[in-house]
């Protein structure tokens, strides 16, 4: 594809930035970058706000050089392509997850990044719904395949039975945006012993997604039953092992209870950063998972770093452009519920979404908002 010259009408564009921890967000102007070879420039239409945005804006986590832009998920339209890029064309509607501490995060009017981070939005999916998917989806797939070593062959063979299909797989916080995709994808690939924790009001939906056993992590009796269930079923795992995804990553809220009930020899993946409450009522961010709680003998833990998926050449080239759109189009995953955040301006919508996260108003859904005024 030939190079299309940058639009002279857009030498700069608006972006939402954190200027200091706990300070109001600000709107700043940043350069509009022309795509290099293998890159595209996308006009951003819809974005999602995530807990990672709150960690940066509120707690200063990975707030490296303010003003720092926010956002890891975007949808939009390709407006310019660099040389050697023929997988996308101008006018394609795309969705993507981006590295939120990179130079091109999502919460800005244009992004210029490698074409392989974009998938084409299926025609039956509205862009605001597509904005709920990428960051949670890549976290799900990367965690299952690379951190928990759970095979997910793609395309899935027409006849497929996974190894150790009946070994227990526990998802703590299964109604989270990541947890919902984990359950659905495991069911699609034939895993039959999917065990979940979530508030009781979400149990019916999680069973419809594929959960075999459901437990309420707020009820002590349920936690005791969960511990008994895992210990009984661990004895019949054979060559496998109990595998656990901590989709919450809270020292007190998830890791400590898991340490009390996960059987010896289990493998536990924890979404980073781990949140620890401090004595002043604030939070600390930990990147360690093994020695911060007292696990039983032989329990191995790994901390999940979502965007390290790009270190895997196959996933870098296929996860977002190929696998993600296919899983959506085929109905393997049902998108998270979307709550559209309103506001009079770009900045107001961004701030409103962040404030909703701060007030903990979100459960099992994603906050999405429009970048440009209609």
From TrEMBL:
Molecular function per GO: oxidoreductase activity, acting on NAD(P)H
InterPro entries xrefs: ADH-like_N, ER, GroES-like_sf, NAD(P)-bd_dom_sf, Trans-enoyl_RdTase-like
Limits of the Enoyl reductase (ER) domain: 21-368
Domain of life: Eukaryota
Protein name: Chaperonin 10-like protein
């Amino acid at each position: 594809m030939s190079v299309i010259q940058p639009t002279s009408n857009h030498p700069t564009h608006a972006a939402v930035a954190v200027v200091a921890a706990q300070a109001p967000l600000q709107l700043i102007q940043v350069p509009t970058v022309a795509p290099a070879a293998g890159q595209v420039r996308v006009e951003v239409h819809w974005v999602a706000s995530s807990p990672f945005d709150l960690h940066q804006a509120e707690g200063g986590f990975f707030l490296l050089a303010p003003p720092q832009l926010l956002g890891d998920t975007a949808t939009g339209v390709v407006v310019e392509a660099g040389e050697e890029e023929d997988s996308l064309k101008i006018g394609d509607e795309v969705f993507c997850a981006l590295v939120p501490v990179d130079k091109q995060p999502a919460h800005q009017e244009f992004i210029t990044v490698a074409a392989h981070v974009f998938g084409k939005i299926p025609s039956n999916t509205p862009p605001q719904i597509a904005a709920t998917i990428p960051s949670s989806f890549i976290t799900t797939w990367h965690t299952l395949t690379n951190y928990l070593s759970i095979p997910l062959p793609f395309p899935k063979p027409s006849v497929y039975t996974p190894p150790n299909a009946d070994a227990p797989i526990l998802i703590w916080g299964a109604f989270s945006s990541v947890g919902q995709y984990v359950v659905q994808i495991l069911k699609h690939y034939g895993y039959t012993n999917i065990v979940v924790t979530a508030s009781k009001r979400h149990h019916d939906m999680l069973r419809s997604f594929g959960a075999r056993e459901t437990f309420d992590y707020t009820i002590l009796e349920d936690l005791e039953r969960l511990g008994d269930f895992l210990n009984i079923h661990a004895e019949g795992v054979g060559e496998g092992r109990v595998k656990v995804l901590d989709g919450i990553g809270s020292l007190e809220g998830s890791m400590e209870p898991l340490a009390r009930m996960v059987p010896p020899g289990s493998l536990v993946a924890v979404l980073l950063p781990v949140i620890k409450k401090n004595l002043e009522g604030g939070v600390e961010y930990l990147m360690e998972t093994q020695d911060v709680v007292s696990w039983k003998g032989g329990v191995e833990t790994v901390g999940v770093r979502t965007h390290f998926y790009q270190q895997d050449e196959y996933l870098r080239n296929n996860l977002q452009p190929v696998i993600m759109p296919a899983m959506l189009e085929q109905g393997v995953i049902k998108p998270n519920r979307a709550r559209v955040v309103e506001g009079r301006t770009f900045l107001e919508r961004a701030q409103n979404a962040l404030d909703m996260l701060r007030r903990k108003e979100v459960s099992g859904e994603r906050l999405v908002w429009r970048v440009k005024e209609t």
